[in-house]
Structures are given as structure tokens and as C-alpha cells.
Amino acid sequence: MVYAIVRAGGRQEKVSVGDTIVINRVAGEAGDSIDLAPVLLVDGDKVTSAQNELAKVKVTAEKVEDLRGEKIRILRYKNKTGYKKRQGHRQELTRLKITGIA
């Protein structure tokens, strides 16, 4: 089993070939290829974490689609002053399919 821990969208994700992940929005069109920065690589019993060895590793992904996350509601309220403020937010996201770890 080969998998990698990659830095993507401000977080670290565990990926293997064929996985689909959702990260913060990445520029580009659907079908574009994206390279992700590996932090750790596990190939069976061999674990690679040295920076000079990870520089040779490429984790590629294909952009599937752009989407928006679930809506969150933000409410600010101060007691006895009549202050109320309501706000909503939906995060811009991108779905990626991992195509290769080499």
C-alpha cells in the first residue's frame, strides 16, 4: 500500500492513487493537473520523510470540479443594547482526484 501525506489547501491530507479529496479553492479549469507537495511518503514498510528524498517525489492530482461548502451562520449579539448582526459564509472549495504518486 503506497500513500502520501501532502500539504494541500492549508491542511495536510492522507492520499493514495484514486482517492478524491476536497480542499480550499485552487485556480484552474476542470481537468487541469495539479502537483501537491508531499510531507511524508509510505511505501509498504519504507517511510520517507527526509526533505532531499521528498524533493524527488511527485504527487499529481486532476481537478474535478469547483464547489461551495456548507453554509455556516454567524450571529453576534450583545445583551441589553439592541445590537444584533447576522452573517453567513460558504467556503469556496475544489474537488481533486489523485492520479499518481511517483
UniProtKB/TrEMBL annotation:
<dbReference type="GO" id="GO:0006412">
    <property type="term" value="P:translation"/>
</dbReference>
<dbReference type="GO" id="GO:0019843">
    <property type="term" value="F:rRNA binding"/>
</dbReference>
<keyword id="KW-0694">RNA-binding</keyword>
<dbReference type="GO" id="GO:0005737">
    <property type="term" value="C:cytoplasm"/>
</dbReference>
<dbReference type="GO" id="GO:1990904">
    <property type="term" value="C:ribonucleoprotein complex"/>
</dbReference>
<protein>
    <recommendedName>
        <fullName>Large ribosomal subunit protein bL21</fullName>
    </recommendedName>
</protein>
<keyword id="KW-0699">rRNA-binding</keyword>
<dbReference type="InterPro" id="IPR001787">
    <property type="entry name" value="Ribosomal_bL21"/>
</dbReference>
<dbReference type="InterPro" id="IPR018258">
    <property type="entry name" value="Ribosomal_bL21_CS"/>
</dbReference>
<dbReference type="InterPro" id="IPR028909">
    <property type="entry name" value="bL21-like"/>
</dbReference>
<keyword id="KW-0689">Ribosomal protein</keyword>
<dbReference type="GO" id="GO:0005840">
    <property type="term" value="C:ribosome"/>
</dbReference>
<dbReference type="InterPro" id="IPR036164">
    <property type="entry name" value="bL21-like_sf"/>
</dbReference>
<comment type="subunit">
    <text>Part of the 50S ribosomal subunit. Contacts protein L20.</text>
</comment>
<dbReference type="GO" id="GO:0003735">
    <property type="term" value="F:structural constituent of ribosome"/>
</dbReference>
<comment type="function">
    <text>This protein binds to 23S rRNA in the presence of protein L20.</text>
</comment>
<dbReference type="Pfam" id="PF00829">
    <property type="entry name" value="Ribosomal_L21p"/>
</dbReference>
<comment type="similarity">
    <text>Belongs to the bacterial ribosomal protein bL21 family.</text>
</comment>
<keyword id="KW-0687">Ribonucleoprotein</keyword>
